[in-house]
Amino acid sequence: MSSGTEAWNEISSTYEEILIHFSVDPELLVEGGNVIAAEIHQEDAMSSDLSFDLELSGSRNLGEVTPIWSVAPEGADLSLTGEFSASLPGNYTVTAVSDGVEATALISVASDNVISIAALDGFLWENGAATSTVEVTRSGSIEEAFEVSLVVNGDAISGVDFSGVPESVIIPAGQASVGFEVSIIDDSLREGREAIFVTPVATDLFAVGSEGVASITIIDDELAVVEIPDAGLDVTVVVNTKTNLAGLIQSRQQFVAAGDYWKFDDQGFAPTAGWKGLPYLDGDWQVGLAKFGYGDDDEITKVSYGGVDDQKQITTYFRRRFYLNDPADYSALTTSLLVDDGAVIYLNGNEVERINMDPGEVTYSTPAKDTIGGDDEKTFFDRELSPLDLVAGENVIAVEVHQRSQTSSDLAFDLTLDGTRASGLPLGRVKWMRKSGPGTVTFGDDENLSSSVLFDQVGTHVLSLETESGEVDEITVLVEAAQGHTQGYAQWITDYTLIDEAALADPDFDGVCNLMEYATGGNPEKGGDAAISTLVEDSITPGDLLFTYRRLRGINLGDASGETGNGYSIYGLNYMVQVSNNLIPWTSASASLAMQVEGAPVDNGDGTESVMVRLTPPSNSNSDWFVRLRIEQE
After folding, report:
1. Mapping DSSP to helix (H, G, I), strand (E, B) and coil, where does residue 292 land?
2. Residues of the domain holding 185
3. Same structural domain for residues 439 and 411?
4. What is the DSSP string of 151-210?
5. How far apart are CA 541 and CA 531, in angstroms?
6. Which residues contact 138 (CB under 8 A, 6 or more apart)?
7. Helix, strand, or coil (residue 480)
8. Fewer CB in a 10 Å sphere around the end CB: N or C, the chain?
């Protein structure tokens, strides 16, 4: 094509970006170097743009080519013809190289091995069944031996609470499983339930199956202890006088807690003879945690009812071991039972309680007396048992739970068992605290049951005695004023020898009557000791009056304003601050002037306190004001 030849059409818009595919005869190629050339023509000389790009590729016939094969990582092989085989699962990269051309492929090889793990005994006692076999099992090929790494979790500590869990196990060639023993370490610590979880670590060699965790629960044989405080009787004491408290402690040991571990039999027929006591082989019984039952959707462990809705099993059986040293240590034994519908309780083979069951012989088919429903089927009910049925060492409590009928919709069971120690000795720390009351309370030793205590204000105080286990008991202490102000004027006046005991008499001739002496902490036999009220003008706020008076000290924090409802009354006396601008008539200060207490009352240390009130006359008042303290006896 000659130079200057125009293209026969214009290419524009999106077509300028399109690659045009066409084929070239491969016979044009020569061995060695080849050249490709192109000439680009415009549609006319006025074209606004020009663009060019080209790609040339060829398909090669490899029928006669023998590439060099390789595979990585180790664990797989390739034949000379590229046939792939693997002895281990994993991800492999296959590479073929020929005449400088390289091709790769990724091949994933899955394992047919699945590992499962299980503990043959999921509950172990520190003092009792203290070992469990854990089995690691594989499915799939057993031709090769391989190692299974293990991870341990849970709140139990290896070397402290248990031993025997290795970092890994090796399943030998030709063998489907391997086991190891987990042993519980018996200590002297009081602890809750502790858990051990052993889990295999998945690798390319195997996957972890549905039994992927071996779970073991350690049941502590050291009894849970709850200390029950007794703060003593309510008392009346005198202000600023030390008094010794009289606290006591009883300790309650918890043999069985709510939500605890039990063995149970829900096979639909009575267990073999001897199931109620010791010794008895219950190794084939199932294990679980309360609450047990069905039909309420809040069960921790569901039990079987037999599978037929209108022919449910009547009776389900439960056993629970516990340990103690000396039965003589216990003065009382208490059980608290949640049951739907009825139950019979046995302690070491002896029947000790029936709940909602008729008298007479009880068999597997004996129904409960009544149907339990409403709140009763979710409530624990206390029963007192005799500690005489306890024995030293291992004990067993057994319960058979009965349905009212074979069509009962639900079943429920949980139980606690507590023993109260006869010694009553404290096993841990105790602490006295003030819960409420005025002023300051000072304990001589707040961690001593018989601590001294001092109150600096009269009134009603509540003290609490709390144990380390969180149990609390309270005592109410009425603190009364000193100097005989404990039973009102009539009792107070008898402490003196007077020529006249009348309330308005003045036997010491000091201008203060007996009632006023009593109300302000004076002595009716001693003239000149009367507490005189004072009235001064405030130097900071001219015009304001400051009135100070003395009164018996108590828990009533009123200001003696009387008619405002914030008056002050104690021991049959009513105090009222009154004012007048002409001495007749007198009215409550709060009714005529603005009145407020200045600061807190000042304790005089003798059963009285001094109170200052601010009186603010009206701004447009030019009157003189007289102030007095009025005391009325009820």
Report:
1. strand
2. 114-219
3. no
4. EEESSS-BTTTEE---SEEEE-TT-SEEEEEEEEPP-S-----EEEEEEE--BTTBEE-S
5. 26
6. 113, 114, 115, 116, 171, 176, 177, 206
7. strand
8. N
Answer whether residue 293 is part of any domain: no
pLDDT tens figures, 535-593: 999 999 998 999 999 998 765 556 777 644 457 777 778 889 999 988 889 998 888 88
Q: What is the pTM for the complete model shown?
A: 0.48
Within this chain, do residues 103 and 131 fall inside the same structural domain, yes or no? no
Q: How confident is residue 423, by pLDDT bands cut at 50, 70 and 90?
A: low
Which pLDDT value is given to residue 484?
A: 42
Calpha distance 533→340 (Å, rounded): 73
| Residue type, position 109, single letter | V
- Cα 200 from Cα 213, distance rounded (Å): 8
Per residue, the 3-state secondary structure of 364-426, as one string, reads CCCCCCCCCCHHHHHCCEEEEECHHHCCCEEEEEEEEEECCCCCCCCEEEEEEEEEEECCCCC
Please check whether residues 550 and 565 belong to one and the same domain: yes
Q: Is residue 499 part of a domain?
A: yes
Q: Is residue 76 domain-shared with residue 150, that is, in the same domain?
A: no
In one-letter notation, the amino acid at residue 304 is S
DSSP letter at 133?
Answer: E
Instruction: Provide mean pLDDT across the span 350-375.
Output: 94
Of the candidate ranges 20-24, 187-191, 472-476, 618-622, the one whose mean pLDDT is the lowest: 187-191
* 263, 408: one domain: yes
% of the chain surpassing 90 pLDDT: 39
With respect to residue 206, please indicate whether it lies within any of the assigned structural domains.
yes
The residue whose two tokens read 């399109």 is 18
Please compute, for residue 496, the number of CA atoms within 13 A of its CA located in the half-sphere on the CB side: 22
Q: Are residues 503 and 607 in the same domain?
A: yes
Cα distances (angstroms) measured from residue 326 to each of 47, 302, 451, 581:
113, 36, 32, 84
Flag whether 225 is in a domain.
no
Same domain, 318 and 213: no
pLDDT digits (tens, 9 = 90+) for 231-247: 788 888 877 778 888 88
Confidence bin at 35 (pLDDT 50/70/90): very high
Whether residues 570 and 499 share a domain: the answer is yes
Confidence of residue 482 (pLDDT cuts 50, 70, 90): low
Q: Is the peptide bond before 89 cis (omega within 30 degrees of 0)?
A: no
For residue 339, give Cα distances in angstroms to 185, 346, 382, 501: 35, 15, 12, 70
Query: Which single residue is written with the structure tokens 């959707």?
Result: 297
Residue 169: CATH number of its domain: 2.60.40.2030
